[in-house]
Amino acid sequence: MKRAKEIEERLLALGRMKSKLEDETKNVYMIASGQTLNDSVELSNDMRTVLLGMCIGEIAKLNREFEEL
Predict the structure, then answer these.
(1) Concatenated DSSP letters of 15-56
(2) What does the alpha-carbon distance between residue 49 and residue 55 come to, in Å, rounded to a whole number?
(3) Measured in Å, how far apart are the chain's first and last C-alpha atoms?
(4) Which listed site, 19, 21, 30, 37, has its alpha carbon 20 to 30 Å from 46?
Protein backbone atom coordinates (compact mmCIF):
# COMPACT_ATOMS: atom_id res chain seq x y z
CA MET A 1 0.00 0.00 0.00
CA LYS A 2 2.81 2.39 0.87
CA ARG A 3 4.50 1.96 -2.52
CA ALA A 4 1.17 2.45 -4.33
CA LYS A 5 0.66 5.76 -2.54
CA GLU A 6 4.22 6.85 -3.39
CA ILE A 7 3.61 6.01 -7.05
CA GLU A 8 0.31 7.93 -7.11
CA GLU A 9 1.96 11.01 -5.61
CA ARG A 10 4.83 10.82 -8.09
CA LEU A 11 2.41 10.39 -11.01
CA LEU A 12 0.55 13.54 -9.94
CA ALA A 13 3.79 15.53 -9.84
CA LEU A 14 4.90 14.15 -13.20
CA GLY A 15 1.50 14.97 -14.71
CA ARG A 16 1.86 18.60 -13.62
CA MET A 17 5.38 18.70 -14.99
CA LYS A 18 4.29 17.15 -18.29
CA SER A 19 1.49 19.69 -18.75
CA LYS A 20 3.90 22.60 -18.18
CA LEU A 21 6.42 21.19 -20.64
CA GLU A 22 3.74 20.62 -23.30
CA ASP A 23 2.36 24.16 -23.03
CA GLU A 24 4.41 26.06 -25.60
CA THR A 25 2.86 29.37 -24.53
CA LYS A 26 4.70 29.22 -21.19
CA ASN A 27 8.40 29.64 -20.51
CA VAL A 28 9.98 26.89 -18.43
CA TYR A 29 12.94 27.54 -16.16
CA MET A 30 15.34 25.42 -14.16
CA ILE A 31 15.97 26.93 -10.73
CA ALA A 32 19.12 26.36 -8.71
CA SER A 33 19.10 27.39 -5.10
CA GLY A 34 21.37 26.99 -2.14
CA GLN A 35 22.98 28.87 0.68
CA THR A 36 24.86 31.23 -1.62
CA LEU A 37 23.20 30.58 -4.98
CA ASN A 38 19.78 31.49 -6.32
CA ASP A 39 19.66 31.45 -10.09
CA SER A 40 17.37 30.36 -12.91
CA VAL A 41 17.95 29.43 -16.54
CA GLU A 42 15.28 29.32 -19.23
CA LEU A 43 15.10 25.92 -20.92
CA SER A 44 15.54 25.78 -24.68
CA ASN A 45 13.00 24.01 -26.88
CA ASP A 46 15.42 21.10 -27.28
CA MET A 47 15.84 20.73 -23.52
CA ARG A 48 12.07 20.91 -23.02
CA THR A 49 11.70 18.07 -25.53
CA VAL A 50 14.31 15.99 -23.70
CA LEU A 51 12.67 16.57 -20.32
CA LEU A 52 9.21 15.86 -21.74
CA GLY A 53 10.45 12.54 -23.13
CA MET A 54 11.98 11.62 -19.77
CA CYS A 55 8.76 12.58 -18.02
CA ILE A 56 6.62 10.46 -20.37
CA GLY A 57 8.99 7.52 -19.92
CA GLU A 58 8.85 7.80 -16.13
CA ILE A 59 5.04 8.00 -16.19
CA ALA A 60 4.88 4.82 -18.31
CA LYS A 61 7.31 3.01 -16.00
CA LEU A 62 5.39 3.98 -12.87
CA ASN A 63 2.06 3.03 -14.43
CA ARG A 64 3.43 -0.44 -15.22
CA GLU A 65 4.75 -0.81 -11.68
CA PHE A 66 1.42 0.34 -10.23
CA GLU A 67 -0.50 -2.19 -12.34
CA GLU A 68 1.80 -4.99 -11.12
CA LEU A 69 1.06 -4.20 -7.46
Answers:
(1) HHHHHHHH-TTS--EEEEE-SS-EEEEEPPHHHHHHHHHHHH
(2) 10
(3) 9
(4) 37
